[in-house]
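hiii so um. not sure if this is the right channel but i have a protein structure encoded as tokens and i wanna go backwards to a sequence. like what aa goes where. can anyone help
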């Protein structure tokens, strides 16, 4: 099976692509990437596909989370560990409190490009190209920083390789051992009510593990976790250069990440992104917003998963708290009636962004929870499985989303607002979300 060349894809008029000033530099960067070893292996992608098939059957739950946009400066051992830690904590809460296997996928090691609503940004009368993530240009508001630079695609590869190296070391080197559940709870979390709730649960887990050890049971699953990487497949040059033919099956895989998704702004059926991802064998996702019709969803499923393979396709809905209860049922009903194999996942972040009076982009924690609750309500009413959540979060004590148990106010946003793009849940809010979702799962 072959994939279309870049010229064919660009002839489709792809959305949200950088305008590079030097075509020769683009060719050189792509040629360099084509020689690089895979970041992930096809067999690992197949393993994740098997796990996502269980999600689509209602036998597991997907937890997908991480940065809105990774930065090259953020590739440090502390940053990677902190993100991994909050995802491990959330996963153990969901697994223990809801008694359901949790598939763990990070928005990590590749989430360096962002679609934007405008190509340009104006400040104080000065207009420059919008920041499209470190994969494309720099965050600093200067002419030099904002020029798209294809060498950054090579930097994405190197940063992703370093991140995956750290993740693999943590998850296999003892950090993900279940007996570490207490040590994952740092001081600023432990002091919060949700942190104390977590401590109580950690004590129960510790007692259960001690019992298991006493009777001679010590399975490998207690000491390591399966953790997969994901990102939005946005910059065509990068994803195309990282697509390789698997030696086992002679089929193409995008080896830049285990799971890649198509965004709400690039999911047009005749678009280059849908065309490219229809040829790769990875598990893939599509973001579906409130403008999606049931016919859109069915057409995407037919194009992206023509053999209706379980685990291949995930629909990630991002309606907004005020629209999900009205908009989602029509999609789910029609897709289910057509017999389409798909995992349904809720992104409660992107439909709930607003600008605070201070100028900061933010989200209300209550809106995030309300959208997840609406997602669960719809699936419960239709007898279908609410397959997972897809959230933007960080392992740090940031002040980017208002509300939650800490009762962050709009006035607090300037305290520690560190995101270069969209607001993320902080560590305490993420853990609080996990407990609330676990309660919904128990009822589901």
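sure thing!! here u go:
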């Amino acid at each position: 099976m072959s994939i279309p060349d870049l010229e064919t894809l660009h002839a489709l008029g792809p959305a949200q692509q950088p305008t590079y000033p030097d075509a020769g530099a683009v060719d050189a960067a792509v040629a360099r990437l084509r020689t690089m070893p895979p970041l992930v292996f096809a067999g690992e992608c197949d393993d994740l596909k098997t796990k996502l098939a269980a999600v689509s059957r209602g036998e597991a739950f997907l937890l997908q989370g991480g940065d809105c946009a990774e930065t090259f400066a953020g590739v440090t051992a502390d940053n990677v560990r902190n993100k991994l830690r909050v995802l491990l904590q959330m996963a153990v809460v969901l697994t223990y409190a809801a008694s359901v296997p949790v598939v763990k996928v990070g928005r990590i090691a590749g989430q360096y490009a962002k679609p934007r609503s405008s190509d340009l940004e104006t400040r104080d009368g000065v207009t420059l190209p919008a920041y499209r993530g470190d994969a494309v240009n720099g965050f600093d508001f200067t002419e030099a920083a904002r020029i798209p630079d294809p060498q950054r695609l090579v930097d994405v590869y190197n940063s992703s390789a370093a991140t995956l190296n750290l993740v693999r070391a943590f998850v296999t080197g003892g950090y993900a051992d279940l007996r570490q559940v207490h040590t994952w709870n740092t001081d600023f979390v432990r002091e919060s009510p949700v942190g104390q709730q977590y401590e109580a649960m950690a004590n129960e887990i510790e007692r259960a593990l001690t019992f298991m050890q006493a009777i001679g049971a010590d399975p490998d699953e207690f000491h390591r976790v399966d953790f997969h990487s994901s990102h939005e497949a946005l910059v065509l040059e990068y994803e195309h250069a990282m697509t390789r033919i698997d030696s086992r099956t002679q089929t193409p895989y995008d080896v830049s990440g285990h799971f890649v998704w198509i965004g709400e702004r690039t999911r047009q059926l005749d678009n280059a992104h849908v065309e490219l991802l229809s040829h790769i064998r990875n598990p893939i996702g599509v973001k579906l917003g409130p403008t999606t019709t049931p016919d859109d969803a069915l057409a995407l499923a037919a194009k992206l998963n023509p053999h209706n393979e379980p685990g291949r396709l995930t629909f990630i809905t991002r309606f907004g708290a005020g629209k999900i209860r009205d908009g989602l049922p029509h999609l789910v009903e029609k897709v289910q009636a057509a017999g389409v194999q798909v995992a349904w996942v809720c992104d409660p972040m992107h439909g709930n962004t607003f600008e605070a009076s201070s100028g900061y982009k933010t989200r209300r924690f209550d809106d995030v929870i309300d959208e997840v609750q609406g997602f669960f309500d719809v699936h419960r009413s239709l007898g279908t499985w609410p397959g997972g959540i897809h959230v933007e979060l960080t392992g740090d004590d940031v002040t980017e989303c208002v509300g939650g148990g800490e009762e962050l106010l709009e006035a607090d946003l300037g305290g520690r607002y560190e995101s270069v793009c969209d607001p993320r849940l902080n560590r305490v809010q993420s853990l609080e979300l996990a407990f609330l979702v676990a309660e919904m799962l128990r009822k589901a």
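oh and The CA atoms of residues 15 and 266 lie 6 Å apart.
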